[in-house]
Design goal:
two-stranded antiparallel sheet, 10 helices, rod-shaped
Length: about 300
């Protein structure tokens, strides 16, 4: 590659190569940064105007500004003046800057381009409410429940219990660290495990052993194991069969020990009851006769041997 440069005497900008070749930024972000650094000090232009004058649109410009802000090249501050008015100051640097003392880098998802919620806290002013911090995994969930204006904003008790159980199970494994939102995604699956009689120990045996060496997505690994190793639904217990006893007189089956209603005289026996009773008596007599014959045959050899 051959590079051709012109010798400029006016309307040019000197930029460091480290900024122009900063590969952590996209080409769009680096081009936008070069455009901003070419403007004179005090230039006023917001992101909306940049997008309207660019063929890439607002989404690309907003993403590029976010990249620059996270890398330390671009910062928007809103300052409250003594008379109560708020002014906005935009700072553009040609080298990455460390965060100023007292300022917090915006968390993922928060605005970084000077939106209405980008008001910088005054480090001199005392906070109106003390911050509450808790080491428990479910602290953020409890805080949201306290701040809710109605009961419908409170999460379901079943899902809250599932989130707390999941955090207790994965606590020994640092590779499976989750955020509150990620744990809520998995809460319905954990709740199904608990409803099917599983204990936290069962969940630990299913989720923790044999993890891959690099865990790129803890949520994906846990969701896969929760779905694939889901225990079966327990079958409903069958009612025990009712036990029966025999009548003490006629030996008919009765619900409880004692005599039947017919023998007690409470009901009349069926018409063929005498026939059934006779058949049973005859059978019992044959059984007794067979037993007597067997006993006699067993005694006969012993008598012959005694003689």
């Amino acid at each position: 590659m051959r590079v051709h440069r012109s010798a400029h005497v006016r309307d040019f900008t000197v930029l460091p190569n480290t900024m122009l070749q900063y590969r952590r930024l996209s080409y769009t972000a680096r081009g936008l940064l070069a455009d901003l650094l070419s403007r004179p000090d005090g230039w006023r232009e917001d992101g909306r105007h940049m997008a309207d004058t660019s063929p890439q649109g607002r989404c690309a410009i907003r993403k590029a500004l976010k990249e620059l802000a996270e890398a330390g090249f671009y910062r928007v501050e809103k300052i409250r003046m003594p008379d109560g008015t708020i002014i906005t100051e935009t700072h553009v640097h040609d080298t990455p800057q460390l965060m100023p003392p007292g300022a917090n880098r915006p968390a993922p998802g928060e605005g970084t381009t000077g939106g209405a919620d980008a008001l910088v806290k005054n480090p001199v002013k005392e906070p109106s409410l003390p911050s509450r911090q808790s080491g428990e995994p479910g602290a953020a969930l409890g805080a949201e429940r306290r701040e809710g204006d109605s009961e419908k904003d409170a999460p379901d008790e079943r899902l809250r219990e599932a989130v707390a159980t999941l955090f207790r199970v994965i606590r020994p494994e640092p590779r499976l660290s989750l955020g509150e939102a990620e744990a809520r995604e998995l809460a319905p699956l954990v709740a199904q495990w608990l409803e099917r009689g599983s204990t936290p120990a069962d969940l630990a045996r299913a989720l923790l052993p044999g993890l891959p060496a690099p865990v790129y997505s803890a949520v994906a690994v846990l969701r896969y194991r929760l779905e694939r190793k889901m225990p079966p639904v327990r079958a409903a217990a069958r009612p025990a069969a009712a036990g029966y006893a025999e009548c003490a007189q006629c030996h008919d089956p009765v619900p409880r020990p004692g005599i039947c209603r017919a023998c007690a005289g409470l009901v009349s026996r069926p018409a063929d009851d005498s026939r059934t009773t006779g058949i049973a008596s005859a059978g019992a007599a044959r059984v007794r006769a067979a037993l007597d014959a067997a006993r006699a045959a067993a005694r006969a050899p012993a008598a012959v041997a005694a003689r």
